[in-house]
Give the backbone structure.
Amino acid sequence: MKIDKVRNLLKNVLSLSDYSKVIKLNIGWSKDEKYYIESEIGEKFLLRVSDIEYYNDKKEEYMIMKEIYDLNIKMSAPIDFGKCDNNKYVYLLLSWIEGTAANEIITTFSEEEQYNLGIKAGLILKKFHSISAPDEQEDWEQRMLKKFDYHLERYKTCGIKVPNDNIAIKYINENLHLLKNRPQTFHHGDFHIGNFIITSDNTLGIIDFNRWDFGDPYEDFYKMMLFSRELSIPFAIGQIHGYFNNRVPNDFFEILALYIADVILFSVVWAIPFGENEIKEMLKRAEMIFSDYEYFNSAVPKWFPY
Protein backbone atom coordinates (compact mmCIF):
# COMPACT_ATOMS: atom_id res chain seq x y z
CA MET A 1 0.00 0.00 0.00
CA LYS A 2 1.45 3.38 -0.97
CA ILE A 3 2.20 5.97 1.70
CA ASP A 4 -0.22 8.50 0.17
CA LYS A 5 -3.04 5.94 0.48
CA VAL A 6 -2.05 5.32 4.08
CA ARG A 7 -2.26 9.06 4.73
CA ASN A 8 -5.75 9.15 3.17
CA LEU A 9 -6.72 6.21 5.37
CA LEU A 10 -5.53 8.06 8.46
CA LYS A 11 -7.46 11.16 7.53
CA ASN A 12 -10.69 9.76 6.09
CA VAL A 13 -11.24 6.45 7.88
CA LEU A 14 -9.39 6.67 11.18
CA SER A 15 -9.94 10.40 11.79
CA LEU A 16 -6.26 10.85 12.57
CA SER A 17 -5.82 14.13 10.75
CA ASP A 18 -3.23 15.56 13.13
CA TYR A 19 -0.28 13.22 12.61
CA SER A 20 3.35 14.12 12.04
CA LYS A 21 4.97 10.84 10.99
CA VAL A 22 4.08 7.82 8.85
CA ILE A 23 6.95 5.36 8.51
CA LYS A 24 6.73 1.98 6.80
CA LEU A 25 8.28 -0.80 8.89
CA ASN A 26 10.10 -3.60 7.09
CA ILE A 27 10.25 -6.03 10.00
CA GLY A 28 8.78 -9.43 10.85
CA TRP A 29 7.65 -12.37 8.76
CA SER A 30 3.93 -11.73 8.37
CA LYS A 31 2.31 -10.63 5.11
CA ASP A 32 0.92 -7.52 6.79
CA GLU A 33 2.28 -4.14 5.79
CA LYS A 34 3.19 -2.26 8.97
CA TYR A 35 3.38 1.47 9.60
CA TYR A 36 4.57 3.51 12.57
CA ILE A 37 2.35 6.55 13.08
CA GLU A 38 2.93 9.49 15.38
CA SER A 39 0.38 12.23 16.04
CA GLU A 40 1.11 15.90 16.48
CA ILE A 41 0.60 15.54 20.24
CA GLY A 42 2.95 12.57 20.55
CA GLU A 43 0.52 9.64 20.45
CA LYS A 44 2.05 6.60 18.77
CA PHE A 45 0.30 3.88 16.80
CA LEU A 46 0.97 0.75 14.77
CA LEU A 47 -1.09 0.31 11.61
CA ARG A 48 -1.24 -3.14 10.01
CA VAL A 49 -2.68 -3.41 6.51
CA SER A 50 -3.55 -6.67 4.71
CA ASP A 51 -5.18 -7.71 1.46
CA ILE A 52 -8.98 -7.88 1.72
CA GLU A 53 -8.91 -11.68 1.31
CA TYR A 54 -7.77 -11.81 4.93
CA TYR A 55 -10.73 -9.78 6.20
CA ASN A 56 -12.30 -12.58 8.26
CA ASP A 57 -8.94 -13.59 9.73
CA LYS A 58 -8.17 -10.01 10.71
CA LYS A 59 -11.60 -9.50 12.19
CA GLU A 60 -11.07 -12.56 14.40
CA GLU A 61 -7.58 -11.32 15.32
CA TYR A 62 -9.00 -7.93 16.33
CA MET A 63 -11.74 -9.50 18.45
CA ILE A 64 -9.42 -11.93 20.23
CA MET A 65 -6.96 -9.10 20.93
CA LYS A 66 -9.75 -7.15 22.59
CA GLU A 67 -10.47 -10.15 24.81
CA ILE A 68 -6.80 -10.65 25.68
CA TYR A 69 -6.30 -6.96 26.40
CA ASP A 70 -8.71 -7.33 29.32
CA LEU A 71 -6.24 -9.75 30.96
CA ASN A 72 -4.09 -6.77 31.97
CA ILE A 73 -1.12 -7.77 29.81
CA LYS A 74 1.33 -5.24 28.40
CA MET A 75 0.47 -5.35 24.70
CA SER A 76 -0.66 -3.21 21.79
CA ALA A 77 -4.21 -2.05 22.48
CA PRO A 78 -6.65 -2.80 19.64
CA ILE A 79 -8.11 0.57 18.63
CA ASP A 80 -9.83 0.19 15.27
CA PHE A 81 -10.48 -2.27 12.47
CA GLY A 82 -12.10 -2.08 9.04
CA LYS A 83 -11.88 -2.00 5.25
CA CYS A 84 -10.18 0.70 3.22
CA ASP A 85 -9.14 1.84 -0.27
CA ASN A 86 -12.43 0.83 -1.93
CA ASN A 87 -12.46 -2.47 0.00
CA LYS A 88 -9.08 -3.56 -1.37
CA TYR A 89 -7.50 -3.78 2.07
CA VAL A 90 -8.29 -4.48 5.70
CA TYR A 91 -6.54 -2.62 8.51
CA LEU A 92 -5.86 -2.96 12.22
CA LEU A 93 -4.94 0.13 14.22
CA LEU A 94 -3.07 -0.63 17.45
CA SER A 95 -1.34 1.37 20.13
CA TRP A 96 2.44 1.46 20.01
CA ILE A 97 4.55 -0.13 22.77
CA GLU A 98 7.51 2.11 23.55
CA GLY A 99 10.73 0.20 24.16
CA THR A 100 13.37 -1.99 22.53
CA ALA A 101 12.97 -5.39 20.91
CA ALA A 102 14.05 -7.98 23.49
CA ASN A 103 16.11 -9.98 21.01
CA GLU A 104 18.25 -6.90 20.35
CA ILE A 105 19.24 -6.23 23.95
CA ILE A 106 18.65 -9.40 26.00
CA THR A 107 22.37 -10.27 26.08
CA THR A 108 23.22 -6.88 27.60
CA PHE A 109 21.43 -7.92 30.80
CA SER A 110 22.98 -10.08 33.51
CA GLU A 111 21.98 -13.75 33.53
CA GLU A 112 19.84 -13.10 36.61
CA GLU A 113 18.03 -10.25 34.83
CA GLN A 114 17.53 -12.43 31.75
CA TYR A 115 16.06 -15.15 33.95
CA ASN A 116 13.71 -12.68 35.65
CA LEU A 117 12.51 -11.39 32.28
CA GLY A 118 11.87 -15.01 31.31
CA ILE A 119 9.74 -15.44 34.44
CA LYS A 120 7.67 -12.44 33.33
CA ALA A 121 7.25 -14.07 29.91
CA GLY A 122 6.06 -17.29 31.52
CA LEU A 123 3.46 -15.41 33.57
CA ILE A 124 2.18 -13.69 30.42
CA LEU A 125 1.88 -17.03 28.64
CA LYS A 126 0.00 -18.49 31.60
CA LYS A 127 -2.54 -15.66 31.32
CA PHE A 128 -2.97 -16.36 27.61
CA HIS A 129 -3.68 -19.99 28.36
CA SER A 130 -6.42 -19.07 30.81
CA ILE A 131 -8.66 -18.59 27.76
CA SER A 132 -10.16 -21.98 26.85
CA ALA A 133 -10.75 -23.13 23.28
CA PRO A 134 -14.37 -23.11 22.09
CA ASP A 135 -16.33 -26.33 22.62
CA GLU A 136 -16.53 -26.99 18.88
CA GLN A 137 -12.72 -27.04 18.51
CA GLU A 138 -11.49 -30.13 16.64
CA ASP A 139 -9.97 -32.87 18.81
CA TRP A 140 -6.28 -32.10 19.32
CA GLU A 141 -5.00 -35.62 18.64
CA GLN A 142 -6.80 -35.89 15.31
CA ARG A 143 -5.76 -32.42 14.32
CA MET A 144 -2.08 -33.02 15.07
CA LEU A 145 -1.94 -36.43 13.42
CA LYS A 146 -3.05 -34.76 10.19
CA LYS A 147 -0.63 -31.90 10.74
CA PHE A 148 2.33 -34.22 11.36
CA ASP A 149 1.50 -36.24 8.23
CA TYR A 150 1.31 -33.05 6.18
CA HIS A 151 4.59 -31.74 7.60
CA LEU A 152 6.42 -35.01 6.96
CA GLU A 153 5.16 -35.27 3.39
CA ARG A 154 6.20 -31.68 2.65
CA TYR A 155 9.60 -32.32 4.25
CA LYS A 156 10.27 -35.48 2.27
CA THR A 157 9.54 -33.73 -1.02
CA CYS A 158 11.23 -30.37 -0.33
CA GLY A 159 14.68 -31.44 -1.51
CA ILE A 160 16.49 -30.48 1.70
CA LYS A 161 17.65 -33.02 4.28
CA VAL A 162 18.09 -32.31 7.97
CA PRO A 163 21.00 -34.44 9.25
CA ASN A 164 19.75 -37.21 11.58
CA ASP A 165 16.15 -36.67 10.46
CA ASN A 166 15.46 -40.37 11.00
CA ILE A 167 16.01 -39.86 14.74
CA ALA A 168 13.41 -37.09 14.91
CA ILE A 169 10.93 -39.12 12.84
CA LYS A 170 11.44 -42.12 15.12
CA TYR A 171 10.78 -40.00 18.23
CA ILE A 172 7.58 -38.64 16.68
CA ASN A 173 6.26 -42.08 15.73
CA GLU A 174 7.02 -43.53 19.16
CA ASN A 175 5.33 -40.72 21.07
CA LEU A 176 2.13 -39.98 19.19
CA HIS A 177 0.19 -41.42 22.12
CA LEU A 178 1.10 -38.26 24.08
CA LEU A 179 -1.40 -36.31 21.96
CA LYS A 180 -4.38 -38.05 23.55
CA ASN A 181 -6.73 -36.00 25.74
CA ARG A 182 -4.66 -32.82 25.63
CA PRO A 183 -6.45 -29.63 26.73
CA GLN A 184 -6.78 -26.74 24.30
CA THR A 185 -6.46 -23.04 25.07
CA PHE A 186 -5.71 -19.79 23.30
CA HIS A 187 -2.29 -19.81 21.61
CA HIS A 188 -0.25 -16.71 20.89
CA GLY A 189 1.29 -18.85 18.16
CA ASP A 190 4.60 -16.97 17.91
CA PHE A 191 5.68 -16.72 21.53
CA HIS A 192 9.43 -16.08 21.53
CA ILE A 193 11.95 -13.41 22.42
CA GLY A 194 11.66 -11.70 19.03
CA ASN A 195 8.08 -10.71 19.84
CA PHE A 196 8.79 -9.03 23.15
CA ILE A 197 9.43 -5.37 23.83
CA ILE A 198 11.43 -4.36 26.90
CA THR A 199 10.36 -0.97 28.20
CA SER A 200 12.53 1.55 30.05
CA ASP A 201 11.36 0.17 33.41
CA ASN A 202 12.03 -3.46 32.33
CA THR A 203 8.36 -4.23 31.80
CA LEU A 204 7.84 -6.92 29.16
CA GLY A 205 5.37 -6.22 26.36
CA ILE A 206 4.16 -8.78 23.82
CA ILE A 207 3.44 -8.05 20.14
CA ASP A 208 2.39 -9.80 16.89
CA PHE A 209 -0.78 -11.83 17.43
CA ASN A 210 -1.33 -12.69 13.77
CA ARG A 211 -0.46 -16.38 14.25
CA TRP A 212 -2.90 -16.95 17.12
CA ASP A 213 -5.04 -20.07 17.30
CA PHE A 214 -6.25 -22.62 19.86
CA GLY A 215 -4.38 -25.75 20.86
CA ASP A 216 -2.36 -27.65 23.44
CA PRO A 217 -0.81 -25.01 25.73
CA TYR A 218 2.50 -26.91 25.75
CA GLU A 219 2.84 -26.42 21.99
CA ASP A 220 3.02 -22.65 22.54
CA PHE A 221 6.52 -23.20 24.00
CA TYR A 222 8.21 -24.63 20.93
CA LYS A 223 9.30 -21.32 19.37
CA MET A 224 10.84 -20.36 22.69
CA MET A 225 12.92 -23.56 22.45
CA LEU A 226 14.20 -22.46 19.05
CA PHE A 227 14.56 -18.68 19.14
CA SER A 228 14.59 -17.59 22.81
CA ARG A 229 16.91 -20.40 23.86
CA GLU A 230 19.22 -19.53 20.96
CA LEU A 231 19.85 -16.06 22.44
CA SER A 232 19.35 -16.60 26.17
CA ILE A 233 19.17 -19.88 28.02
CA PRO A 234 18.44 -18.04 31.33
CA PHE A 235 15.42 -16.40 29.67
CA ALA A 236 14.18 -19.80 28.43
CA ILE A 237 14.60 -21.37 31.88
CA GLY A 238 12.84 -18.42 33.47
CA GLN A 239 9.87 -18.73 31.11
CA ILE A 240 9.37 -22.37 32.06
CA HIS A 241 9.79 -21.69 35.78
CA GLY A 242 7.49 -18.67 35.66
CA TYR A 243 4.77 -20.51 33.80
CA PHE A 244 4.78 -23.51 36.14
CA ASN A 245 5.73 -21.66 39.34
CA ASN A 246 8.87 -23.86 39.55
CA ARG A 247 6.77 -27.06 39.55
CA VAL A 248 7.18 -28.50 36.04
CA PRO A 249 4.79 -31.41 35.35
CA ASN A 250 6.33 -34.77 34.51
CA ASP A 251 4.81 -34.88 31.04
CA PHE A 252 5.76 -31.36 29.92
CA PHE A 253 9.14 -32.05 28.37
CA GLU A 254 8.12 -35.31 26.71
CA ILE A 255 5.19 -33.63 24.98
CA LEU A 256 7.18 -30.53 24.06
CA ALA A 257 9.96 -32.70 22.58
CA LEU A 258 7.34 -34.28 20.30
CA TYR A 259 6.44 -30.85 18.89
CA ILE A 260 10.11 -29.89 18.62
CA ALA A 261 10.98 -33.06 16.71
CA ASP A 262 8.29 -32.21 14.17
CA VAL A 263 9.14 -28.53 13.81
CA ILE A 264 12.88 -28.94 13.18
CA LEU A 265 12.01 -30.86 10.03
CA PHE A 266 9.19 -28.67 8.79
CA SER A 267 11.07 -25.45 9.58
CA VAL A 268 13.34 -25.96 6.57
CA VAL A 269 10.24 -26.23 4.38
CA TRP A 270 8.96 -22.97 5.87
CA ALA A 271 12.34 -21.32 5.24
CA ILE A 272 12.59 -22.13 1.52
CA PRO A 273 10.66 -19.07 0.23
CA PHE A 274 12.93 -16.80 2.30
CA GLY A 275 16.17 -17.92 0.67
CA GLU A 276 19.37 -19.82 1.31
CA ASN A 277 20.46 -17.89 4.38
CA GLU A 278 17.22 -18.62 6.22
CA ILE A 279 17.46 -22.31 5.28
CA LYS A 280 20.98 -22.42 6.72
CA GLU A 281 19.78 -20.76 9.92
CA MET A 282 17.04 -23.35 10.36
CA LEU A 283 19.49 -26.19 9.73
CA LYS A 284 21.75 -24.70 12.44
CA ARG A 285 18.80 -24.59 14.83
CA ALA A 286 18.01 -28.23 14.06
CA GLU A 287 21.60 -29.12 14.92
CA MET A 288 21.26 -27.13 18.16
CA ILE A 289 18.08 -29.01 19.08
CA PHE A 290 19.64 -32.43 18.42
CA SER A 291 22.49 -31.44 20.73
CA ASP A 292 20.14 -30.06 23.40
CA TYR A 293 18.12 -33.28 23.43
CA GLU A 294 21.12 -35.56 23.02
CA TYR A 295 19.64 -36.78 19.75
CA PHE A 296 16.33 -37.37 21.52
CA ASN A 297 17.81 -39.82 23.97
CA SER A 298 16.53 -37.33 26.56
CA ALA A 299 13.23 -35.49 26.54
CA VAL A 300 14.69 -32.81 28.81
CA PRO A 301 17.14 -30.39 27.16
CA LYS A 302 20.57 -30.66 28.74
CA TRP A 303 20.65 -26.97 29.68
CA PHE A 304 17.56 -27.15 31.88
CA PRO A 305 18.28 -27.55 35.63
CA TYR A 306 15.79 -30.36 36.17
